[in-house]
Each structure stands twice: as structure tokens, then as C-alpha cells.
Amino acid sequence: MGINCPSCGGKMVFDIAEQQLKCEYCNSRMTIQKYKSNNEGEQQQMTYDTVVYTCRNCGAELTAPDEQTVAYCSYCGSEQMLTAKHEQTLRPKNIIPFKKTKEQAMEQYAKALKGKFYVPKEFKDPNFLEGFRGIYLPYFSYNALVADREVQMEGTASYTSGGYDYSETYRVNAHLGGYSSDVNFDASAAFDDTLANEIAPFNAKDMREFHEGYLAGLYADKATTDERTYIQQATELAVDSVYKEINRKIGKAKLKEEKDPEMRKAQVGISAVDCEVSYFPVWFLTWRHKKRVAYSVMNGQTGKIAVDIPVNKKVFFLVSLIAAVVIFLALYFLPIFILPKTIASIAAIILVISSILLRNEIKKIYVRESHIYDYGDTQHKAKKKVTKAKESSAYIAANDMPKKKSWGLIAVIIPAAYVLLYMIFGVLNGGFLQSLFSGGGGSAVFSIAMLIQLIFSVFTIIHAVQIEKKSAIIPAILAPAVLAFGIFVFAKNSPYDYWYYSAALACLVAVIINCLSCINYFNYLTTRPVPNFFRREGANNAK
Fold this sequence. Notes:
Elements: E1 12-15, E2 20-23, E3 29-30, H1 32-38, H2 40-43, E4 47-54, E5 61-64, E6 83-90, E7 94-95, H3 102-113, H4 126-129, E8 133-161, E9 164-186, H5 193-199, E10 208-209, E11 219-220, H6 231-249, E12 254-255, H7 261-268, E13 270-289, E14 292-299, E15 305-307, H8 313-333, H9 340-370, H10 394-398, H11 404-429, H12 432-437, H13 441-464, H14 473-492, H15 497-525, E16 528-529
Parallel strand pairs: 7-13, 8-11
Antiparallel strand pairs: 1-2, 2-3, 4-5, 4-6, 7-10, 8-9, 8-12, 8-13, 13-14, 14-15, 14-16
Helix pairs in contact: 6-7, 9-13, 9-14, 9-15, 11-13, 11-14, 13-14, 14-15
């Protein structure tokens, strides 16, 4: 078990900086190639000996080629000592060794936090940064077989010369054949695909044949996602790469590509897709607060980092209070008088802006909890909306709106409620037209604000009822009620200023509630629930 030093028998670890094995006791060095030649028989086996570390809190499992002290779990942040057992593990085909050291991971992390004022104090604690752990995550590497054949395609080119526009059509003869490779997808159900995408890509130039020597002193996760999960996406990406290569070789002309996925596949001749398991390097840091965890991960080959950074609410409100005092004093001593109606109108605008910000946070959480773009999460597969690989961008995810039928219903409800509101206030004040135009510009501001607010409130509620944390429903209802009060105040057209100050105060209270909700939801978005991997297959850690 493990790799012993040939000089002193001590434990050897993989030295990332030197890319070779190093003894922890006598500092002897040995290249992976030399170890391979001395243990050639081991490389022919389908399995290798590992120690499996299991977290008693969440059930997460990590493997290592030798016994190590594991004081905490990288997935749930539990500080319980992990249990260990020896077993045989299937040998992956390839591995990309770590290129970035732990010190470089800590340096990149510090750069990511630079300029962030509201970071929890633990994030900058040197002892916390020592918690970075190197983990090899399993990836499915797909190779698409392109049939060896001649194909004829059509290409077009458009350009302007001498004041004339030209459009040309070409016949493209292409000889295809071989493999389209370097298509990789995260194979661990424990690792959210959205995190995997943030630190992608890995460069295949550093791919090596697997040997457990690369794991010495590090850890590895298991492949727990079915390889068929990504077959369709891998095929479409392979087809795209073939088209891209042909376009590159035909120069100024642009290939006329098929639109239908099956026709595209048939045109380029993708006949089969096979899959191999590879290990890719990731530096992993976990921060736990109550029942939520935040992850910071870095690509161990390229240094690309993704950091979940929640807001320290105490620091945020302290800074906000200081800023508010400074602004108040500046306005107090300046010779400026602002009308109460103007103050109320500005407050209404701020309220709408805060509601839009809240809506954006709810939308992001809805997309994450729906697991639409976490294809490796098999537990929620039945609930997912299956989309094409080209359509699975973050932009589409962020704008995943209700169906057309819902749009039609909302388009009727909102104007009807808006007109009804004006009619009610008009009757109370002695006439609809009078209430519509009374109060000058402030009435128009509140009217427009109400229309916009109703739209965003409806969408906020639609998505809030579908996520675990539903508290956004309260501010989504409160904001229109406050603006309705403002419309009533302007329709009343009272000569007393306290009415307008009351409307402004009500708007600002609603703004504070929106801001509190935004911060709470932002922290909810930048953290994830403590995972449960006791049922390892199809486990989920993506909320």
C-alpha cells in the first residue's frame, strides 16, 4: 500500500513543482517513469489498491494510494475524522497531473478576494487557506469516430470590391476520417457541473497514462455519473469541431451547415462515440456556516479559479451606515431644498430598482435549484428541461422565463389591475381623469413605477414558489402595496407635506426589506446545502 522510498523505505509524495516523487524523510527523488519501469506489472492491472476515506457526516468518499491523516471533509466541511478502509479501485485510463502548487492556489485565492470589502473574516485567515486540498476529479473523455469517406458540401462567400457586392457559391470536397477528441465532462455527481464549467477547460497536451504515483500525497474522487449522460452533448460538440476544422481549411468561404442535429451528424459521418475515464486536477477549499457550505475551486493545471463569496452582513451594514451618515451631512449643509413630492418620487424609483435586483437573485437561485444545466446530477434528471448543448449557455439559463401561456395571462392581468387601481382611486377622489393627472410629475413616476413593479413582482413570485427559500414572496407583495399607497397619496393631492413624506418613508422601508432579502438570497446563492452522499449514485450537491 502506498509508494515507499527505495532509499529509506519512507513515504513518497508527488512533488508538483518538480513533477516527480519525493521522499518525505530523506528527500530522495524518483521520476514517475522510473517508478513505472520498476513496477511494470502493476500498470497492466485493471484495478489498483487504494484507501477509501468516508465522511461519517455526509457520506462523501475520497480515495488515496496510501494512508493519510484526514481531519475534515472537503465536501461538507465537517471536522470529524474520516473513516478509512482498503479496497480495489478501477484504474482510469489517463490523468492530467497537478501543475499548480498549493501555494499558487492560495495566491490565486487571495487575488480573487482582493478589493472585496464584505468578505467573512474567516476567508482571509491564513489557517483557513491552509485547508486547500488537491483532489483529482473524474472526467469522461469522449472520442467520436468520424467515418473515412469523401463528402461534398456547399460553401458561400460574400464580399465588396470596387463598389460592387459579390456573392459566390463553392462546391467543397472534403476527405473526412479519424477521431474528434478532447471532449470532457465532469463524471462526479458530487461536483456541480456549473462549478466544473467555471474552471474549464483542461488542456489535453498534459494528458499522461494513469499511474497511482501521480496521486501520492493527494486524493481522488470516484466516477459516479453514468457515461451515457453526456453522449448527446459530446456528439454535438464533436460535430461542431468537424465543421469548424473544415471552415478553417476552406479559407474565406463559409460552409453551409445542416441545421437538424441528426442531419449534421449524418453529414460529417459521426458513427460512434466511446468514453474513457480520466483524472483532472482541482484544488478544493470548503467554508461551512451552519447548514450551508461555500466552495472555492481552482483548476490545478491552468490556475483558473471559481470562488463562492458570501457577504458579511455586519460589515455590510456598518459600511452602509457610515455612507448614509456622510451623504446626510453633505446634503444637510448644502443649500438645497428638495420638494416632498420629489423625495417621494425618488424613493419610488429606488424601490423599483431594489425589486429588480431581488428578482435577479431569485432567478439565479431558481436556475440552480432546477438543476437544468447540471447534467451530471442524476437525482433530478426527471425534472430537468432537456436542452441542446448549444442552448445550454449561462445566458439562456439566466433568462429561463415562464411559458408563452403564462406570458399571455400576465399581459392581461397586469394592465387590468393597473387600470382598476386608478379607477378605485379616481372614484375616491371624485373622478378618474382627475386622479390620473393630479399631483404633477410625481403621479406619473408612481404610475410607471407601479407598472414596472407589478411585472417584476409577478416573476419574482412565480420563481420564488418553486425554490426552497420562499421568503421573497413577502417583499414581492409589499412593494406594490407601498406604491399603491403612493398613488393614493398623489391622487389625494393633499396640501400637507406629511402625506408625501409618509409615502417616501414607506418606499424606503420597502427598499430596506428588499435589500435585506437580496443579501440573504445572495448568501444563499453563494453557498450550498450540506450534501448527503450516503446514497452515492445520483447524489446531489448542486442546490
